[in-house]
């Protein structure tokens, strides 16, 4: 039963005119019949607008489907958590469900989290810091879902509070300062490492948007062979896990951005990876706006530049850039550092040029940042060459096309890598030699001698590849000779069979001439042959036939039985001869009805029962 409650009063989601602008706060909706639940969650809510509902049906009836919110579902009192989550998500994708659980309901919550229908859970009694983090992450997810659903990456306007049974809690009034601290903490999370994400984004010339995927030959995507499905799925699973854990651009080598880009290198048309990059761009834009509001400019700028590298034409970028420009002198150095961390080197150079013209930074600081930009760009280029070499080796694109192959990127790494690329070059060089040898063996196996010669020649020219090339050349020469020998033997066997067939036919003609009067009625089998199917052939599933020539005497018995041809040779010969010798025939007859001896041929077939 729904318990009556007073009309909710709504805390405004934006400041009155004349006050400093802040981003709308995502409200928290609690579905519970336990009034005591509010007290332990007060410190975690951080002053957000809050409403309580007795049931999910009550919430769905009162809450607009277009308005984002975090929904806390009290799963401790026998609530069907799966049904509640399904009802919420059916009502609105902008609602982010979080379960409030005890040890008894924790397993059900974990199962729904693995299915990605439940966002997270809070274990009772709650740890204030953990609960605060869960609510903050859920609120960020709700804001991003609202932006995506509305088709506008900016913050959606505040909606009216629900009419009905929602009960506000006034316990969070005055905690706005703590909320800003939480937003700053979220910014710290985004920038907790000073190293750039390993995402390899090809920098564009100043004024041009940066490409989201590395440059390659114009038709490389169309002609690239398919990558192993297992490798693509493994990268996608890592990306999904990173998205779930909010590891969008950190840590290096294990973030969603890097994994999705690797998928697109392997399969440029992969829809999940493309949608994933769009999703990351939206989330980074949302983080940049929140961090700007909290005056966490370092976090805001890093998120902004990372988003720009993915979606340079995003409509929210202009508004955020305008806010940045208002604080240009304060933010110049931080903005350059953020661009460098996002590997947006062309933009970092443009910002340094602008700072130099406007005097926003001292000359010595500009020189220091230019040196850092050159160092980082060199490191990013080395990482990019190494990554692309690894991808092309995995795809088997070893030598072609000339400017987008494993050989090309290894050469670039050797020429430009210096000491920093030496270790990667050693590892990749070994992988390259192994793949060359593997592909050469495969070419030898299918008698593709031209391909084998090219691959062996490439191995011979690589450092450390000479022993492998020498062995593979021996294998290729041996295979060629074996093929020639088999071809010659087959030709000799065919010639022998043809000669035997001609001799047999001549002998039969001579025997017929000596036998006297020609037969008018040929010999006929009295009953079907009884065959002893060879056990080995039956076990191996082998079928075939044997063509037999023999003389049918006036007694009806076969004599002078001989093999004319067989397929496969030597497998069924004995069984066929034995069957003919056991057989009984009606002898051939002359015109006057007299039985006469007559030569005959018969093809004995051996077939397994279906």
Walkthrough of the structure:
By secondary structure, the protein is α/β, with parallel strands linked by helices. Helices cover 54% and strands 10% of the residues. It has 21 helices and twelve strands. The strands form four sheets. A five-stranded parallel sheet has the order 2-1-3-4-5. Strands 8-7-12 form a three-stranded antiparallel sheet, with helices on both faces. The chain is elongated, with a radius of gyration of 40 Å.
Summarize it.
The chain is built from 21 helices and twelve strands. With 610 residues, the chain is α/β, with parallel strands linked by helices.
Annotation keywords:
610 residues; five-stranded parallel sheet; disordered N terminus; three-stranded antiparallel sheet; elongated; 21 helices; alpha/beta
Please mark out the parts with pLDDT under 50 across 5 or more consecutive residues, or reply none. 1-23, 152-226
The count of helical stretches stands at 21
Q: Give the integer mean of the pLDDT values.
A: 78
Query: What spatial order of strands do you see in the largest sheet?
Result: 2-1-3-4-5
Largest sheet: 5 strands, parallel
Radius of gyration: 40 Å
User: Per DSSP, what share of the residues sits in E-state strands of 2 or more residues?
Assistant: 5-15%
The outline comes out as elongated
Strands, count:
12
Structure classification: alpha/beta
Instruction: Quote the distance from N terminus to C terminus.
Output: 69 Å
Helix content: 40-55%
